[in-house]
Amino acid sequence: MRKALRTIDVTNQYIGNILNYLNIAVVVIVCWEIVARYVFNAPTSWAADAPVMIIGYMVVLCGGYVQLYERHVRIDSLYSHLGIRMQALFDIGTYFFFCLFMYAVIWHGWLFAWESIKLQETAGTPWNPIVYPLKTAIPVGAFLLWLQRTADIIRKVYHAFSGKEV
Fold first, then answer.
1. Structure confidence by residue, pLDDT tens digits, 9-61
2. With a threshold of 0.85, does the pTM exceed it?
3. Domain range for residue 138?
4. How many whole angstroms separate alpha carbon 141 and alpha carbon 106?
5. Residue by residue, what is the 3-state secondary structure of 94-133?
6. How far apart are the first and last CA of the chain?
7. Hey, how many other C-beta atoms are within 10 angstroms of the C-beta on 5?
8. For residues 2 and 8, what is the distance between their CA atoms, to the nearest angstrom?
């Protein structure tokens, strides 16, 4: 079990590290477009779409990475005052609703992506990039988030009721 949990952590860490570097790509593209437009009077057709698409990948794929470091928004005023076992019970209770939501995002995200793949959908802008890889990233990102949250729940429950770390 430790190996599986560690594999989930390493996978989300690796993806998060790659996504962190995409921030640099966005800055470079935006700076390039500013220079091309205002210095050389030669705006590009792709510089408006590329940062939006890159940020889209970052947003939908970084959920597992954010969960790995427990940085999602949580109302901590009550949770932080609970003991470790009550926190585990609270996490188990909310995990059920989390799973329902993730199921909906994964299932409907996949239907959304599949329709885009079948249509070979493009953005419809002057650059006209394909968008189905970005739409496919939606269920993939939701699955990564679900995996990481599941790993966290397993660890918390095990720790709360055995007193040992996984």
1. 999 999 999 999 999 999 999 999 999 999 999 999 999 999 999 999 999 99
2. yes
3. 2-162
4. 9
5. HHHHHHHHHHHHHHHHHHHHHHHHHHCCECCCCCCCECHH
6. 8
7. 18
8. 10
